């Protein structure tokens, strides 16, 4: 069985791993073993935070809608309930955008619900 030298392959693997952790602090940016675990944890956090981002934005939209609806003597829950009963098909993202950037248009939506 001939001898196989893996120096170039191993160095390439190490170089690629360390390139992924460029900018990390301490040993995670210089040591392959620590870099590998850092990459794995970063991937887990990235996956979870992509899921959390959806929830965070929905909460933000709810806050924006509620803040604007309170000016018209309604609560968020009664407003959303009335929207659903009237069959107005605006989602929370659009409502929050209207509330923030187009208060006149949002007032027309509130008037249609009342």
Report on this model:
By secondary structure, the chain is an all-alpha fold. It has a single domain (8-113), classed as Orthogonal Bundle (c-terminal domain of poly(a) binding protein). It has 5 helices and no strands. It is rod-shaped. The termini are far apart.
Could you write a compact summary of the structure shown?
With 114 residues, this protein is mainly alpha-helical.
CATH superfamily: Ribosomal protein L20, C-terminal domain
- Average pLDDT taken over every residue: 95
The CATH class: Mainly Alpha
Distance between the termini: 85 Å
Structural class: mainly alpha
Number of strands: 0
Helix count from the secondary structure assignment: 5
Could you name the CATH topology? Answer: c-terminal domain of poly(a) binding protein
Shape: rod-shaped
So, CATH architecture? Orthogonal Bundle
Q: Low-confidence spans: pLDDT under 50, at least 5 residues?
A: none
Biggest β-sheet, characterized? none
Strand content: under 5%
Instruction: Give Rg in angstroms.
Output: 26 Å
The helix-strand sequence is HHHHH
Helix content: over 70%
List the helices and strands and how they pair.
Elements (H helix, E strand, L loop, with lengths): L6 H14 L11 H39 L5 H11 L5 H10 L1 H11 L1
């Amino acid at each position: 069985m001939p001898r196989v030298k893996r120096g170039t392959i191993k160095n390439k693997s190490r170089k690629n791993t360390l390139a992924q952790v460029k900018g990390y602090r301490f040993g995670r940016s210089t040591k392959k073993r620590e870099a590998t675990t850092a990459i794995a944890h970063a991937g887990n956090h990235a996956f979870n935070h992509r899921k959390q981002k959806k929830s965070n934005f929905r909460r933000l939209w709810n806050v924006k809608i509620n803040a604007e609806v309170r000016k018209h003597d309604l609560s968020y829950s009664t407003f959303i309930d009335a929207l659903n009963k009237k069959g107005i098909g605006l989602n929370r993202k659009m409502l929050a955008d209207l509330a923030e950037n187009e208060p006149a248009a949002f007032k027309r939506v509130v008037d249609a619900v009342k």
